[in-house]
Specification:
It contains 5 helices and 14 strands. It is an alpha+beta fold. It has 3 domains: 1-30; 31-138 and 194-222, Four Helix Bundle (Hemerythrin (Met), subunit A) (Up-down Bundle), CATH 1.20.120; 227-341. The strands form 4 sheets. Strands 7, 8, 10, 11 and 12 form a 5-stranded antiparallel β-sheet that branches. A 4-stranded mixed β-sheet has the order 9-6-13-14, with no helix packed on it. Strands 3-4-5 form a 3-stranded antiparallel β-sheet. Helix 2 (53-77) runs antiparallel to helix 3, helix 2 packs antiparallel against helix 5 and helix 4 (120-135) packs antiparallel against helix 5. The two termini are 68 Å apart.
Length: 344
């Protein structure tokens, strides 16, 4: 009986190792994903680190985003350079705007293809970054045109007298029929307008920003750094002279920014001051509520909230610190360096 169990255990182990190797994941220890653009993928082991769903997600995402980066580099090199206004070098405007738009769609599809339900915050962050870049695209310059044909000048014939003496009258000669007037030449077609361009310096700056967005997401996946522990605190005075059953408390709820098709985004709630572990990096909307233990809400801070007199900071967990503070007296929430910075 013991022999059968030992045999079954060994078979299960062999099958598990075969599955992990076939999936490109090492079977022992943990993973430390190290990717570099343009090079083969490597997976190195870190002992003591368990293989989890986030590590698998990071590995798959890094592979997809590298392909987006490769296509961006290839298409960027193919941009045509022309002479723009003042003979300044420029790229065709429609090619630059098209490349930025296509890279945006390409990156969104790459993130969504990995795990659509979980990667919504990261997609929201990428959407916001591309909207900022597209808002910086300059309007197309005026098209060059050639001046039209000038109006013909009318000649004036002057009669002259010979020595001031009247000419001798001569017998009139029979008039010859006037030759037919030549048909006017058809108007010349206007030259085609020069194609609209964006100066290479401006276009390169925008495309560098596009590449930075792609690289940031790749780096997070490359280092298996797609999650962050989020701490949220409040400067609300907790020593208020209230009965013990009326002690004030504050909650912070947040969800992926933007709309998810055909569904409402799930909300996560933190009671301030408190922390939530393993939050996926990305861009979030939020609501901070200050109330009493009985449930009555006395003040709310929302983001985004165009009607707010002071707009709170965005909850950016890609570039942010992972520490957030709400100041209810000022109706304002913002990122802080650490917990100590969230004080009244």
């Amino acid at each position: 009986m013991k022999t059968d169990r030992l045999f079954a255990t060994r078979v299960t182990t062999v099958l598990l190792i075969g599955f992990l190797l076939g999936a490109g994941i090492p079977a022992a220890g943990g993973v430390k994903v190290q990717y570099k653009f343009g090079k083969d993928h490597e997976v190195k082991l870190d002992k003591g680190v368990e293989i989890g769903a986030t590590a698998v997600l990071a590995k798959a995402l890094a592979k997809q985003v590298q392909q987006v980066h490769d296509r961006l580099v290839t298409n960027r090199k193919a941009l045509r350079t022309l002479s723009g206004p003042g003979n300044a070098p420029g790229y065709l405007a429609n090619e630059v705007t098209g490349l930025i738009s296509e890279t945006h769609k390409d990156l969104d599809q790459a993130i969504q293809s990995v795990q659509p339900s979980r990667t919504a915050p990261l997609r929201a962050w990428a959407d916001d970054q591309f909207q900022q870049i597209q808002g910086k695209i300059p309007p197309p310059g005026p098209t060059a045109s050639l001046p039209g044909p000038s109006a013909p000048h009318t000649g004036v014939a002057l009669a002259s007298l010979r020595g001031g003496v009247l000419p001798v009258a001569a017998k009139p000669k029979p008039k010859k029929p006037a030759p037919p007037k030549p048909k006017p030449a058809p108007p010349k077609a206007a030259p085609p307008p020069k194609p609209q361009t964006i100066p290479t310096s401006t276009a390169d700056r925008l495309l560098d920003q596009v590449e930075k967005v792609v690289s940031q997401i790749f780096t997070l996946a490359d280092h298996n750094d797609l999650e962050v522990d989020l701490w949220v605190g409040s400067t609300q005075e907790r020593k208020a002279k209230l009965a013990f059953w009326q002690s004030p408390h504050a909650t912070f709820s947040f969800w992926p920014q933007g709309k998810i098709k055909d569904s409402q985004p799930a909300r996560s709630v933190i009671r301030m001051a408190g922390k939530k572990d393993h939050v996926l990096r990305g861009l979030y909307s939020y609501e901070a509520d200050l109330g009493l233990e009985k449930g009555a809400v006395t003040q709310t801070i929302k983001y985004p909230d165009p009607a707010a007199p002071i707009q709170s900071e965005r909850l950016d967990l890609v570039n942010g610190t992972g520490f957030f503070c709400c100041r209810f007296k000022e109706s304002y929430c913002h990122a802080v360096a650490d917990e100590k910075d969230c004080r009244s």
